[in-house]
């Protein structure tokens, strides 16, 4: 169960990155802003980057993975892009921080879940190694697309990103899975 302290600390982090770089935010400033003491922070998180990771997971991953399927992945992707827009400063600070990998891993995990849901719907008998390769390749491609979009100040309409991802996933994965089916001979 999520505590009020965790939510307050996540909100404090989002607020503080609007005024200073993520790498410059202190536990003291976070605790003050969230109206909790330092011990409360350390009870829940090991450091600021642990809080950042929790914030991404709580805000997006847990919210989107529930009923993710090939039929609704583009809607879920749209919600994730909306989160990036609404939390653009947090995402940019994460991207420019010492722990850039947290944002990259977060985006990859999100995109990999979308690709996996599409794969399962298209062919749930796909060999595990091919499935892993497709998830890795297409998950990385879509995550990279989001990072490029973020770096360019989210200027392109998010609908364009959804259209691009749809072009990548729809048809291409069906073609690959069909091509890799064992022959009937």
From TrEMBL:
SUPFAM superfamilies: Homeodomain-like (SSF46689). Keywords: DNA-binding. Residues 26-45 bind DNA. It holds the Pfam family TetR_N. One of its GO terms (molecular function) is DNA binding. Residues 3-63 form the HTH tetR-type domain. This is TetR family transcriptional regulator. It comes from Leuconostoc holzapfelii.
């Amino acid at each position: 169960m999520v505590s009020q302290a965790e939510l307050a600390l996540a909100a404090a982090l989002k607020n503080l990155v609007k005024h200073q770089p993520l790498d410059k935010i202190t536990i003291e400033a976070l605790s003050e802003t969230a109206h909790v003491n330092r011990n409360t922070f350390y009870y829940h998180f090991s450091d600021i980057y642990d809080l950042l990771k929790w914030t991404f997971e709580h805000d997006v991953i847990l919210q989107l993975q529930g009923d993710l399927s090939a039929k609704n992945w583009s809607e879920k992707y749209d919600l994730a892009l909306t989160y990036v827009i609404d939390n653009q400063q947090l995402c940019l600070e994460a991207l420019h921080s010492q722990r850039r990998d947290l944002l990259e891993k977060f985006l990859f995990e999100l995109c990999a879940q979308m690709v996996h849901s599409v794969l399962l719907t298209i062919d749930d008998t796909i060999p595990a190694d091919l499935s892993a390769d497709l998830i890795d390749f297409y998950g990385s491609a879509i995550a990279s697309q989001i990072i490029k979009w973020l770096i360019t100040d989210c200027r392109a309409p998010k609908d364009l990103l959804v259209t691009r991802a749809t072009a990548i996933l729809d048809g291409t994965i069906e073609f690959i899975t069909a091509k890799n089916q064992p022959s009937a001979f």
